[in-house]
Amino acid sequence: MKQTNKLTIVLSLFLGLGFGANAQAPATADQHPELKYRRSSLHLILLESEDFPRKETVIKAYHEAPFPDKYNNHSIAVSAVNASSYALTEVEKVTAGTKKSGMANFGANMLSGATAGIVDKDAADMPIVTDKIVKDKKIANQLVAKWFNRQPDGSFDMKLIGERGSYNATEMQANIAKGSARGTASLSDAGEELIGNTFVVLTKLKFISNEPIAAAIREIAKLKANSLPALFQPAAYKVLDIAYNKAKEGYSVWTTSYLYRLKWNDSTAAVFYNDLWMEKGKIDKKKKEAFDKTDLFQMEYIGSEKSSSLVTFSLKETRTEDQIVELATVRNVEHVFAKLQKAYEVFKPKTPIYSGEPVTAKIGMKEGLEGGEKFEVLEQTVDPKTGLTTYVKKGTVTVDKKKIWDNRFNAGEEVSEKDNKDKDKDKKDEPILDRTYFKGGGKFYAGMLLRQIK
CB 3.0–4.6 Å: which of 44, 195, 248, 387 could bond 211 by disulfide? Predict the structure, then answer.
């Protein structure tokens, strides 16, 4: 949103906000069409909200967007929730500290308060609302049920865990049946490597006109400009009006995502295996009811990120307006995911090296790469003392800013005729990339894992 950013910078002057192994030859796609590795698991929930322009197109784009490919799709029954059904009462707002009084939003907070009110008047309440949703819907119970392939009769098995972690599912079930579950390395490893890395992202979308935001910011800035000496006020108003006229055009897609992680530890596992586990053919109705009602399983709130994208409709544009909105929506969601991954260490995915010399990987602009980012190279091993999976650092590599894969949604389509001309002029002789290249070498090989360093 370049235009809005310019406006914000100009107005901030008046508001006083300030600016302040062995190396291997490059592997090819036919040698390993999909490298296998242990991924974190993810479920997505859409937070339904009030009506807004082109809502049907925005929601449709969200549902049809590709699933984040660095995670296992751990989908459960709850895919959308009407957040308004969980709105906080005035008492809850005061208790949670989201309700402010007096002059709390005056001065430096006026700008963010005004824009937030237009984009999402309940933004401050949402982390509390999402907490209510995950508890009411028993999201944690549903995630655990998915992991253990729970059947209608209440029985469990280890099939999914075996598939995702390359464990012997039959052996794991036998250990549980013997009562030795807590002491087996494979079960502890699965809990730490797989179950404990299960995430839920709840996302709220909105599509709004830029004009009300630009107008609100201008009016707040004018109040501040009124305190300037009379000699400078006309020039200040003129600057504000120019900035407003530039920023009011078009629309913006706004995306806010809230990240949760399933809590899983040794004590939780012990209670589950001892008190709730049932195999097929050994059904206990009391255990079945106990699992349905238990509050043993919980979700941990990690944090949130937001992003916005400018949307304009040009006569030179070859896409339809709905296609433009669709592209902006999906790209915006991708950007929020990239921000969540960079902000929260636990959510960072590991990515397998695709080739060892040069080092390449199937990540790119969708993951927020711009060039110069550092990644540690990890080798997956098993600790002989504990039997648990460990990751040993073998070196570091840096993203080559000249060779970054544009893997964003519909990246092959250009946005305008101007972009096409620029592409022809500047990139005519450059090959089309299908992976990102990294600088730095060592004894790295395909299958080793990359993890970004802050």
Answer: 248
